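Table 4 source record.
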Amino acid sequence: MNGNQPFFRSLWTLPNLLTCFRFVAAPGLLAFAWFGHDRAFMGLLALVFLSDVLDGFAARLTGQVTEFGATLDSFADLLTYMTIAVCSFWLWPDLVMREWLYVLMIVGSCIAPPAAGMIKFGRLTSYHTWLVKVAAVVVGVSLFILFLGGIVWPLRIAAFVSLTAALEEITITLLLPSPESNVRSLWNVLQKRQS
């Protein structure tokens, strides 16, 4: 029992609790989508995206940036984006099928970098690059514009931003000799290799 205490102590920090909200919210998102409650789904999704933004800020402000928190956040991100993909198909199947290429690009951009990390390091990577943060914001905003207003071009732009962010993360994985957390950019990795 005492061996689990550090785990539980590290879990009960404000940043990690904000991250855990996404794990708790995933079944709610799925339920709202399954029963066709699109407005409730969008409301909960807004809270999910807000918690994703706030957990990193809270970690930096409270000095609680940890390897555990970074890994937990990466798992939450993966769960969130896979949940969004399923829910979007349930709620707006015609729209998702019409934009299938861009949806596939975004989903692939979420799956490919962790898969590369699993292949090379045997574990999920948790880089949290600046480009991934930009991609998350662009995807989040584009989803709200698409699902609430029916405008598709922001999603198409978001797909290319996501793809670029994924390629950067895969390149980082290929260059790093061992896994690292919170790698800000490919540029940072290249600078370290030169010094």
